[in-house]
Recover the amino acids of this structure.
């Protein structure tokens, strides 16, 4: 590394100071360990026989009770807005001067809108404002009495990657001194599941042991399963009380012919990874937490991409979708959440027996690459460091 690269690295030292998640595993601080210490998945079947991974009923009751305690009717609000509001409350984050709130989602509140249409002969007046994409970002901010800038964006499954890029850019530019990066997705309604079934990428309900066979490179059918999840991270330019550092973020789009296409070489992943490294040479990555949605072509393309980037020294590679499902625009946040836990506890998750790596697990983990890949051929890679 030359002197200019050293200066850039020091300038871009962004610390993650608080982190918390809600998913089928429960509500927890990201630095907690042991969440992935068993080989059991957290899927269940809905009334139509479709696999899904949902936040527990008891936790939803707690969240709805919190919303009701604020003087609101929980049934009027999309699940995404309620999850983010509850997370900010539990993290005791007080949006302040010079702080940004940026939330990401892929689908937004599409299942909420569908439910309103099904359950009401005439749509309630609050359906339109409550089902807009930005509502899940603006409403939590208003609940916490912030008048600071906030925004929401969607870029399919790479949505949270854009949030990380925003955090990286805003903090390094000096335009903000603190950044709340969030992601949320509740895609387990039948409408969204049916959309995935229509493009033939959803699990068919046959395999009870592992309905989603993420990182099974010999599977004969697609096995994606949707899961609920919400995550919030506080990022600052600081070296104090840091859970992990955001070392770099890179993104890339490859030319495709239809919206679900991906090259067999995963070209966009290759480019995004190299851009995340901030250097000409490939750094010493100890672990990859990949996207691996459980589709035949997607999983193999991602594997090929890592072989292109790292040659015959592909780092130990894992996924969490076999356990908690694919939370679409929040999936990279789920990977960041897992990365923080691994860096803090130096504990790798227990994996299904079918997951194979060509190298041994690392004994010490200091640097992790996380990946997301979305419809439209956009990939995001980020490097997280202890």
């Amino acid at each position: 590394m030359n002197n200019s690269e050293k200066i850039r690295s020091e300038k871009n030292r962004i610390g993650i100071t608080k982190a918390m998640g809600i998913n089928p595993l429960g509500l927890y601080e990201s630095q907690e360990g042991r969440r992935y210490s068993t080989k059991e998945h957290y899927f269940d079947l809905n009334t139509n026989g479709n696999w899904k991974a949902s936040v527990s009923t008891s936790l939803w009751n707690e969240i709805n009770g919190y919303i009701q305690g604020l003087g609101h009717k929980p049934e009027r609000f999309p699940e995404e807005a309620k999850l983010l509001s509850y997370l900010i409350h539990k993290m005791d984050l007080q949006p302040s001067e010079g702080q940004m709130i940026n939330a990401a989602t892929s689908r937004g509140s599409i299942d909420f809108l569908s439910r309103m249409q099904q359950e009401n002969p005439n749509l309630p007046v609050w359906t339109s404002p409550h089902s807009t994409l930005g509502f899940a970002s603006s409403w939590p901010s208003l609940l916490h009495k912030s008048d600071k800038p906030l925004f929401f964006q969607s870029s399919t499954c790479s949505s949270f990657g854009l949030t990380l890029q925003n955090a990286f850019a805003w903090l390094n530019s000096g335009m903000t001194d603190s950044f709340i990066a969030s992601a949320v997705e509740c895609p387990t309604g039948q409408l969204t599941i049916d959309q995935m079934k229509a493009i033939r990428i959803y699990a068919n309900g046959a395999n009870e042991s592992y309905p989603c066979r993420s990182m099974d490179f010999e599977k004969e059918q697609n096995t994606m399963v949707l899961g609920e999840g919400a995550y919030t991270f506080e990022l600052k330019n600081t070296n104090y009380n840091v859970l992990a550092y955001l070392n770099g973020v890179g993104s890339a789009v490859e030319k495709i012919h239809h919206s679900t296409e991906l090259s067999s070489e995963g070209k966009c992943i290759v480019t995004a990874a190299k851009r995340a490294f901030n250097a000409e040479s490939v750094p010493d990555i100890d672990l990859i937490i990949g996207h691996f949605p459980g589709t035949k072509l997607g999983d193999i393309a991602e594997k090929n991409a890592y072989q292109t980037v790292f040659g015959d020294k592909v780092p130990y590679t894992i996924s969490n979708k076999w356990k908690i499902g694919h939370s679409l625009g929040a999936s990279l946040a789920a990977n960041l959440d897992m990365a923080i836990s691994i860096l803090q506890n130096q504990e790798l998750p227990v994996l299904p027996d079918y997951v194979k790596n060509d190298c041994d697990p690392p004994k010490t983990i200091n640097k992790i690459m996380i990946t997301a890949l979305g419809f439209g051929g956009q990939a995001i890679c980020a490097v997280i460091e202890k």
In short: The domain at 245-385 is CATH 3.40.47.10 (Peroxisomal Thiolase; Chain A, domain 1).
